[in-house]
Amino acid sequence: MAHVPPTRVSDNPIIAFFQYVWSAAYTTAKGLRVTGYNAMRRPRVTVCYPLEQLDISPRTRARHRLLTDEQGEPLCIACGQCQRTCPDHCVVVTRKKVTVTTPEGEEKQVNRPDTFTIDLARCMYCNLCAEACPVNCLHLTREFSYIEGDVRALTIDLDGLLRPEPLSEYELRQRETAQLAPGDGEEG
């Protein structure tokens, strides 16, 4: 790389002032040229949310959900593994004993959650609680938009964990493509 000698600044203070002003204006214009090029040539990546939404990744981890059985009861056995695993200590589970009837007609005592709360304001959505679940009843959905005016409203309880969320546009499209995919076992 060639050595560029420093620009000679005049001894006259008025000329030196204008040399500095010219240098500042030139470098500013040079920088604005690059900015203008990138602003006009590159595609926009921001959208006007919520009017426009980008497709989210299928691997997105957001709101927590508990799976239920055919009768609508939670599959959770209230073992507390999710509570012990959570690094933010935002999961709280208390258990109660419930009598259930097995398919053979026997009555059996099982653990069910009495309370199950997750503080979404403290959660970092690491998915460790779902991975620690021995019955795989806790999972994180892709529902990420929960707007609240008060941070205390970001605590989700057992009813909120069991409530099925409405399908997002992305999930509806995924279902449509899965239904329209060729080779679903139909022979034509």
Write a brief structural summary.
It contains 5 helices and 5 strands; from the N terminus they run αβαββαββαα. The chain is of the alpha+beta class and 188 residues long. The protein is elongated and about 105 Å long.
Word description of this protein:
The chain is α+β, with helices and mostly antiparallel strands. The chain has a domain at 64-169: 2-Layer Sandwich (Alpha-Beta Plaits), CATH 3.30.70. Helices cover 30% and strands 17% of the residues. It contains 5 helices and 5 strands, in the order H-E-H-E-E-H-E-E-H-H. The protein has helices at residues 13-41, 81-85, 128-132, 158-162, 169-180, and strands at 64-66, 91-101, 107-119, 138-140, 155-156. The strands form 2 sheets. The protein has a 3-stranded antiparallel beta sheet with strand order 2-3-5. A two-stranded antiparallel sheet has the order 1-4. Strand 2 and strand 3 (107-119) form a beta hairpin. The longest helix is centred in the N-terminal third of the chain and has 29 residues, at 13-41. The radius of gyration is 30 Å and the shape is elongated. Mean pLDDT is 81; it is low at 1-5 and 184-188.
